[in-house]
Design goal:
Layout lengths: L1 H11 L4 E9 L2 E8 L4 E5 L5 H10 L3 E4 L17 E3 H8 L8 H9 L6 H5 L11 H28 L3 H21 L5 H12 L1
Parallel strand pairs: 1-4, 4-5
Antiparallel strand pairs: 1-2, 2-3
Helix pairs in contact: 1-2, 3-6, 4-6
């Protein structure tokens, strides 16, 4: 209900860190999963202004951890200077040889947590054509938010130990916003110059 959602976002503003996942289906924001590391809450988009709640938390200085932030930025009013952390990007920097970075594997490695995978939730393999039920989608969002919240701090420490924290904070995370803007707005190119450069590379 709206009152409970408002209480949640007010509490979110007072936290040091929280995990968030925007639940998106067919280009529509359906809800938001929120984890404080102990409890997970799912808020439906039709009962509250999720965008405003996330904006307030970001402006309050709450560290917001995500699992694949770029795909959620369309619905979340976040800025480059907000305290955001993407566990997928951190996992890549810490082990770039892996082909994928499932949230449950990251949570197990960096938080010692045992979370069900998306495949376990849907009871089958997930492909691009897989259509999740509302319940499956909401559960997956919740566990992604929980994995992000649980893993972020230890991943940050690991990045610092390996001398990659500055790279993560000053290059990789700002790049998430830049790539999102490029995908949304596109980029202007000079076709003749691009073709000429292509010929140079072919030599």
């Amino acid at each position: 209900d709206p009152f409970s959602a408002e209480m949640l976002f007010s509490e979110l503003c007072s936290l040091e860190r929280a995990g968030l996942t925007a639940d998106i289906a067919e280009g529509v924001l359906k809800g938001l999963a929120v984890s404080d590391g102990k409890e997970i809450t799912y808020v439906k988009a039709d009962v509250t202004d999720i965008s405003d709640g996330v904006k307030r938390a970001a402006e309050a200085g709450t560290g917001l951890a995500f699992c694949d932030l770029k795909d959620q930025l369309e619905f979340l009013p976040l800025k480059k200077d907000n305290k955001v952390f993407d566990i997928i990007i951190a996992a890549y920097l810490l082990n770039p040889l892996k082909s994928d970075y499932p949230y449950e594997v990251t949570a197990a490695e960096f938080a010692g947590a045992s979370l069900p995978s998306a495949e376990e939730i849907v009871k089958g393999k997930i492909t691009k054509s897989t259509i999740l039920t509302d319940e499956q989608r909401e559960k997956t969002a919740c566990y992604k938010a929980h994995a992000a919240c649980l893993s972020a701090e230890s991943m940050r420490s690991a990045l610092e130990e390996q001398g990659m924290l500055k790279l993560f904070e000053e290059i990789e995370m700002p790049l998430v916003f830049t790539l999102h803007d490029i995908e949304k707005e596109g980029i202007e190119i000079n076709k003749d110059e691009l073709a000429s450069y292509g010929r140079e590379l072919a030599v």
